[in-house]
Amino acid sequence: MLGILVINSISKKEEILVEVFYIITQEGFEKLHEERGRIERELRSLADQKKEAPAEEGFSEKEQLNQDIADLQEKLAKIQAKISSAKIVPNPGEETVDIGSKVLVEFLENGKQKDFKIGDSECIDPNNGKVSHKSPIGRSLLGKREGDICEYTVHSTETKKSVKLKIIKIEKE
């Protein structure tokens, strides 16, 4: 998927061609394909229901089906755009943290340890330790090795806190 980024400079307009990628793991890519298949099946089912729905006056069943179909087509278009611009990251190596890595860290402030899995935007579940590569903790871990100390900042409405952690172990899933 290509996009055009227009930048206004003081003297003239410049156009820059930008290639846009949707970075994703193999697991996330497979989930997108599964979701696309589910939506396509649901669209076929709704189309069949629409054919059989009786014509009524006022807000009819067909109008509701048309709205449901339009909503699903919009979701499908978004998924198709992600699939067509996907750049699948390779399986992570055990040497450095990458998307798909499982990382055991120690919080230096209190000595507690926690596992994190670095995921793309399709595989995020913070309650289960799955964090985005774009999150503050994800960005701080990417590219680091076992034994490295990294730092990220937690912002709240009134304070800003720096959190330091040490990478204990990196695993492939």
- Helical residues, percent: 25-40%
Return the CATH class of the largest domain: Mainly Alpha
CATH topology of the largest domain: Helix Hairpins
| Terminal CA distance | 29 Å
What spatial form do the alpha-carbon principal axes imply? elongated
Beta fraction: 25-35%
Q: Give the count of structural domains.
A: 2
> Which structural class fits the helix and strand makeup?
alpha/beta
Overall radius of gyration: 23 Å
Query: Which architecture of the largest domain would the CATH scheme give at its second level?
Result: Orthogonal Bundle
Strand order of the largest sheet: 7-6-5-9-8
Mean pLDDT across residues:
80
Strands, total number: 9
Largest sheet: 5 strands, mixed
Give an overview of the whole structure:
This protein has 173 residues and is α/β, with parallel strands linked by helices. The protein has 2 domains: 2-88, Helix Hairpins (Orthogonal Bundle); 102-171, Roll (Chitinase A, domain 3). The protein has helices at 26-52, 61-84, 136-141, and strands at 2-8, 13-19, 22-24, 86-88, 102-107, 113-119, 130-132, 149-155, 160-171. Strands 7-6-5-9-8 form a 5-stranded mixed beta sheet. Helix 1 (26-52) runs antiparallel to helix 2 (61-84). The two termini are 29 Å apart.
